Amino acid sequence: MGDCGGLLQCQAYGTPSTTLVEYASDQFNLFNLDLFDISLARGFNVPIEFSPTSCKCTNGSISGVTCTADINRQCPTKLRAPGGYNNPCTVFGGDRYCCTAPHSSCGSTNYSKFFKNRCPHVYSYPKDGASSTFTCPGETNYSLLFCP
């Protein structure tokens, strides 16, 4: 949930310190797959669950992605923001946290490990896709639950 500047449809990612659900339907024409994830790489404001209603994800036996930890109360002081927490890239900048260099090999930091330990199946930094992106067959129905 984020702020799209009062617009009904976001033209960007919204403001930092938001829990982000990313979803793309019917990707890779030959395979007809839906891709989805929850990302804390831009921040956190509410616990969330995103899950298919009728299939198992391809990433192990997980049936959906959740981040139900009370991160707002445990957040490192330097990342605190009104209504949630900021991401390290917004607070500190630089390739170490933003992964912006053309061939960046940035990895997890103490901050991303803090979030990954509390929500193991979500993106915790920009290059965290291998363990945090899930797929289901195209045309799967999903449930989105805020504050589970």
Automatic annotation (TrEMBL):
<dbReference type="Pfam" id="PF00314">
    <property type="entry name" value="Thaumatin"/>
</dbReference>
<keyword id="KW-1015">Disulfide bond</keyword>
<dbReference type="InterPro" id="IPR001938">
    <property type="entry name" value="Thaumatin"/>
</dbReference>
<feature type="disulfide bond">
    <location>
        <begin position="99"/>
        <end position="106"/>
    </location>
</feature>
<feature type="disulfide bond">
    <location>
        <begin position="4"/>
        <end position="10"/>
    </location>
</feature>
<comment type="similarity">
    <text>Belongs to the thaumatin family.</text>
</comment>
<protein>
    <submittedName>
        <fullName>Thaumatin-like protein</fullName>
    </submittedName>
</protein>
<feature type="disulfide bond">
    <location>
        <begin position="89"/>
        <end position="98"/>
    </location>
</feature>
<dbReference type="InterPro" id="IPR037176">
    <property type="entry name" value="Osmotin/thaumatin-like_sf"/>
</dbReference>
<feature type="disulfide bond">
    <location>
        <begin position="67"/>
        <end position="119"/>
    </location>
</feature>
